Amino acid sequence: MRDERHNRLIRRIRALPGGQLHHVERLLELLESGRPAQHAADGLQEPLRENPGNPRRTKDWPHAPLHRLSRHGTFIVTGGTLHKQHRFQGAERLDLLETALLEVLKEFRWRVEAWAVFSNHYHFVAHAEPGALSVKDVAKTLHGRTAVDLNRLDGAPERAVWHNYWDTELTFQKSYLARLNYVHQNAVKHGLVPVAAQYRWCSAAWFERTATRAQVRTIYSFRTDRVKVRDDYDPI
Questions:
Q1: What is the pLDDT confidence band of residue 187, given thresholds at 50, 70 and 90?
Q2: Model-level pTM?
Q3: Same domain, 58 and 6
């Protein structure tokens, strides 16, 4: 019976699409670490979704949140489109931007803690890991990739998409936690949803799913009305 189950599992794994195998590998790692099966399943990344704007790229969700400052640097970053135009309006283009943001941060060795992308701007809070490239490199690559992909999608080659980005290093724990909450709740601030987790293109739902209840209560208790972030946008 055991050999039969073993063979059946192997056949099922072999039948999976290549893009799903990392989920199996992640689950095995969690189980081998001694975590209970349910906790291991909860620790898995959200299933990847193909980006219709660019099928080569898929959403790669971060691991469980780590709510402390990094000794290598922790930053909040905002980027805005040229003339605040709504270049990323609609689900397809928002998927494109969010996927590229998470992809570039991972490539350049940044651990993202909070993010939100909109039709004309984005925010993220992330920690630099050892060997991380600069915020400038992250923004330059993100803006370049998304401009190329978006312009290909819109049939508008050479069109300027982005205006600039702004970054602030966070060095105080309370300031950092308040900005985490600000980014998680940004869709609510802009009036797009009544509850942050309802907005598909931000970190709130991921955060609530992967953090402990105590972490969620703590982060969401920080006031954001006095947080100074460049955010004079009116996204669709």
A1: very high
A2: 0.72
A3: no
